[in-house]
Design goal:
117 residues, two-stranded antiparallel ribbon, alpha+beta, 38% strand, globular, 4-stranded antiparallel β-sheet, single chain
Length: 117
């Protein structure tokens, strides 16, 4: 179902910009230290919404709500309040469906190009 949904997505490529370091899962023994962004992640949120809509159209029912787009740096006991950093930015031209199982290698199930120059 997810592969069919990925094929249905029609979205322009976009620039993704992270400008904040934060700790996710504060209550966890080893929370995630991440880089995240404010307005610079709008394209990623739109892609998520498009995928969610297309997955629902082919019968998949998501169990989890939209999460904040981020890039995980590490898992550690270190915790911090969010703080701004110099922007980390790149153009997103495609997206990938990855099978992720704890303690196993990631498996790429599909890759789809976004439209536009």
């Amino acid at each position: 179902m997810m592969q069919r949904a990925g094929q249905r997505v029609s979205q322009a490529a976009f620039r993704l910009t992270f400008n904040e370091v934060a700790t996710f899962a504060q209550g966890a023994e080893k929370p995630a230290l991440v880089v995240a962004g404010g307005d610079g992640v709008v394209g990623a949120c739109r892609l998520h919404d498009a995928l969610d809509g297309d997955m629902r159209a082919v019968g998949y029912r998501a169990r989890e709500p939209l999460r904040r787009p981020h890039l995980t740096l590490l898992y550690d006991r270190f915790r911090t309040k969010a703080f701004r950093v110099r922007e980390l930015s790149w153009r997103v031209n495609d997206f990938v469906l990855i099978r992720s199982v704890p303690r196993e290698r990631y498996e790429i199930l599909g890759r789809w190009a976004l439209s536009g120059p």
